[in-house]
Each structure stands twice: as C-alpha cells, then as structure tokens.
Amino acid sequence: MDGLQLRDEAVRDRIRLAEEFLDPEDPRARSYRADIILMLNRGMRRLTVNLDEIRSHNRELADGLLRTPFDFSQAFDQALKNVVNAIPIPNRPPIEAPEEA
Questions:
Q1: Residue-wise over 51-90: b if at least 16 C-beta within 10 A, else e?
Q2: C-beta atoms surrounding 13 within 10 Å
Q3: Each residue of 19-63: pLDDT tens digit?
C-alpha cells in the first residue's frame, strides 16, 4: 500500500470509530441518537459530547482527539453526518457529504 491508501484507510477507520461511539450497536452502550434527534428538531448544528465518555468507549479515539484534534474532529463531523443521514426523519433534506478532491 502506498501512503495515500494508508491515509485514506486511517480516515475511514477514524470515521467508523466515531460512528460507533455516537450510535453504537450495543444496546448497553451510551448512544447519542436521542441527542442527535433533539439537535435536529431544534435546528441546532452542534452536538456536545463528553470526552470522558469517549475515553471509556475507546481510549485510542480520545487520545487522537487530544493529540491530533483536527484529524479526529473532522472524522467526528463526517460520522455525525453519516448518523444523521441514517436516522429516518420525514421531510428532511439529506446532509451533504464532503466533496472528494
């Protein structure tokens, strides 16, 4: 694999980890789905998450946010868009995905 492929894979992995944190499949895990729906219903554009909850869910994800916040916050942005688009809300236009260069 070349460097670009490894970087793309790392980006996809960060997004997947963030999606798993925001909307986990494990019913015992804390889910932000209700907070996301509330955010959408109120017309808000920001979701506040707790770093301690991120750390208890996945230490690597929390460390990444602290060490390389730009890379990991972009992954959280994309993960949030993916989760929003997966939530069935009638009459809602889809959230645009970022353009790929």
A1: eeebeebeeebbebbeeeeeebebbbebbbbbbbeeeeee
A2: 12
A3: 999 999 888 888 999 999 999 889 888 899 999 999 999 999 999
Sign of the Cα torsion 97, 25, 29, 56 reads negative
Query: Which residues 6+ apart lie within 8 Å of 10 measured at CB?
Result: none
pTM over 0.90: no
pLDDT at residue 100, rounded to an integer: 53
Residue 101, pLDDT score: 46
Token pair belonging to 75: 């992954």
Positive or negative torsion for Cα 27, 31, 36, 38:
positive
Closest residue by Cα to residue 78 from 94, 97, 62: 97
**For residue 87, which of 21, 28, 32 has the smallest C-alpha distance?**
32
